[in-house]
Amino acid sequence: MLNDLPTRPERIDRFDMKSSAASRALGDSPSPFRCPSSRPPQSWRREIRAILGWASVLGLGWATVSPAKAGSFFFSTGDPDGKMGTASRPGSPGNLEIESADDFILNDPTLINHASFTGLLPTGASLSDISQVVIELYRVFPKDSNFPADGKVPTRVNSPSDVAFTTRDSAASELTFNAGLLRASFTVNNSVVNGIHPIPNQATGGDGFATGEEVQIDVAFTTPLSLPADHYFFVPQVLLGSPGDFLWLSAPRPILPPGSPITPDLQEWIRNGDLDPDWLRVGTDIVGSSAPPTFNGTFTLSGTVPDASSSAGLLGLGLLGLLGFGWRCRVKP
Q1: CB count in 10 Å sphere of residue 135
Q2: Domain around 16
Q3: What SS3 state is found at 138?
Q4: Which residues have C-beta within 8 Å of that of residue 58, sequence separation ≥ 6?
């Protein structure tokens, strides 16, 4: 029965002559791929080429314009432990800038959409007194820094870098924030506001206990923070329109449930405009003692981790389609 099927030798011969002529004109070298000695029916060839063509269009197009699947990201240092409160504010007339920093780790490129942090407002202040919120992210020294350091502090090992990796400011409409009252009165055992000095006067012991209103500030970034995998420091700053300073509350170190433990978990650092670009460790350098305490800051981060594998797979499908679409079998006469 198969021998009775009609053949079209004239069409094959014309195709081969055209293919050979085109090959000679373009200087094609012999293909490393080997095709069958006889070609499939013309209708099959049309269908195969159409399928491969659509695969290339759909694969490349979808990989380019569609969002990749994403996983969620969440990080927390846990709840306040009442041990320390550190000032953290933008600079303003008559007041030096103060930055308090604690670390987190990203194992994958991540988009950060939201953040929150917990602190104290001075007793008698209202939530409406919060006039500005700034979020800064630093990488770990010696990145983004002059190296070696200038020797004004005991060490720069595992400190934040000299300059911020990225900054978002409510005054520039780069973030929005909402503050909520958690407790009308909350006391911390120690605080650091004014006692921030270079060596040899860094060990002040802190500025003593402080009482205020415990508040949580939730932040939404106007444009998500697009961060590569790395080790970072989170710095929240709050400017008040009333007397006094916002104090960022400490969290247990190492991180305890419901927090998100990390390794290494670096301790909290602080600096003011006079100490810049250097930093001091809140516990080891400022509080001091033979067995100094160490602290984390209370904060959370949330966002998404794009799934690069889905886009890569679609891109591979498109490239495979293009390869197949451009492939031609040469059949010897």
Answers
A1: 26
A2: 7-66+309-326
A3: strand
A4: 317, 318, 321
